[in-house]
Hints:
The protein is an alpha+beta fold. Among the domains are: 46-163, no CATH class; 266-362 and 376-443, no CATH class; 454-621 and 651-678, no CATH class. 18% of the residues lie in helices and 42% in strands. It has a 32-stranded mixed sheet that branches. It has a two-stranded parallel sheet with strand order 20-22. The longest helix has 19 residues, at 15-33. The radius of gyration is 40 Å and the shape is elongated.
Amino acid sequence: MERPSSFAGSLRRHPVLSVLGGIVLLLLVVAALFDWNWVRPPIERYISQKTQREFHMDDLHVRLGLAPTIRMRGVYFGNADWSKEGKPMAKAEQLEFSISLRDLPEKFLIPRVALTRPELVFERLPDNRKNWILAEPSETRPSKLRISTLSVDQGQLRYIDHGEPFELDVAASTFDPAKQEKAKDADSPPANERYSTRYEFKGLYHGAAFKGTALTGEVLSFQESGVPFPIQGDLQAGTTRVRVEGTIADAANISGIDTQLRIEGKTLANIYPFLLLPLPASPPYRLEGHLVLKGNRYSIDDLRGRIGSTDVYGKGAYIDKKPRPLLQGELHSKNLDLADLGPLIGIETKETGGKPQLTQAQTRDRPTAKSRQKRVDPDHLLPSGSFDGSRLQKIDAEVDLRATRLKVPKGLPLEDLKASLRLHDAVMVLNPVDFGFAGGTIAGKARLDARAPIIKSDVQIDLQGIQLGNFVPKDSVIAKGTGRAGASLHLTGTGNSIADAAAKANGRISTTVVNGQVSNLLDAASGLNIGKVLALLAGGDKDIVIHCGGAVFDVKDGRGQSTLFVVDTEQTQVVGDGWFNLADERFDLTVAPKPKEASLLSLRTPVRVYGSFSDPNFELKKGPLLARGAAVAALATAAPLAALIPLIETGPGQETDCGKVRQQTQRAAKQATLPAKRQGAAKPDAESPKR
């Protein structure tokens, strides 16, 4: 057999290989000599016809391969006809990008985009039309376009979301880190090896303005890459300032965050327009921690800082899920100042100069806030700041708070705090809200239903094991009382502030005292026993036994009426009667002390305590007092010593049936804990204790 003598001979014997070889050679020649600008006009016409927008470029070059690279110069792409900006969607001195052929047709993946001096305008309508979708103008389906990485050299971007609403303007500029290190300009980015691009931005989100700067590397991961890029940013929105430093993955749709975060401002409520978190009004705050995003969970595991004068540490998480995001928190404080919690419910503090704090419903509208402050009566104690129930409809929450020590107003023996908040489907449950108080506890729970425009509230408070001695100053000349007291409160109401809900409240309040002692001096003074007071001041005070005590008030439409009011001591029986009104914050109680023993120089007479919650007054009942005074004057004209006869107390006070007192207060406390729907109209007890 004859062997081929050469490659040319082989081709002659195999004509197919000859043809293929020729085609390859021709393609190589064509590729080397081909000018891609020859196909530029038909490409421009096709894109313009397909999108119904003007499109043209000054130069086109393509580098072939498995991921072809396309470079365009002098790019112009018109905007959608519904655009309100009056500018082209895109202009760029140069656009260079590559296309992943292996991902077609499932998606149009662009591994890399590089822009030189771009001017971009992106818009989105409420019906989800987007001007950057390269399809028919009426197309609303999700785009198949995916961009993995992006680099920008001296660019401008404007983004408008007419549905959110959201506006953003970004100016990008690149710099040489090596040269930057030698720069002396204080406003220049710091020397570094990580950052080479600077972004300045400003915008509006839900009507709230913001601005800031960010430093990044030369290339940003943009969409669905999961590749982190370095970032150092500073954002300012009104009085709120946020700083971050770390890494972020995918700028267009963030898929990962690992940064140190610091946030500070005048009130936490101002965060709402940006994060849609219904945080309460608060004093100035500063918080920092390590922020991490994995999947749909943003977490801070080492949160620390201060809110007002209160230290805070713990951890938190924000989970982006449907139908509502979930906010979780586990917070602790070694020293919690109750004044810092006051704005949470609209209480005035010294930091506000005596003016009511701005509340959740007032953080967006300053004129409304000022008008509201003028209408609030500064003499009222019940907080009148309103809650915006719609904010509670936008998020769920699970937050626990523990405070080791409380800073409280002088004379209020609060010791520590444990609270738990659960918010689900616009219903907030606070259970428990427990305070250490005067050696005992205040155990509270509350339910706020914000599913309707007017919030429904249901509040229960139980005072257990309160030590009476903690209410008497240690250096007082009055003997320190002992014993324990308890109380139970259950009120339901409707209103978007504590004051409004209290004004419409229904329920019951009861108190009881057991196994106690009280100052003999106080007991004598309550009966205006002048002789005994003088003797005690000269010889010293001492304790006397409290047999029992109790009070019950039935509350309807904000007005409480006493159905039981009695305190029985070893020497005196005190009975009372009265009412209070939560709507106008006024009360009127009459207390009648009845000494059980005969005594000299007694001016026993009922005492009336009345007025407003913030400015109480008292007076002696004039009838009995005038009668005794007239008797003293008449007898003094006959014989000076006879004038003492009307001041001798014959001791008409009787022993109280403490068993019945306990039964009534216990029954009232039990009824106070029943669900509101099972409670009927408040009715006085059929029997009252023997007086």
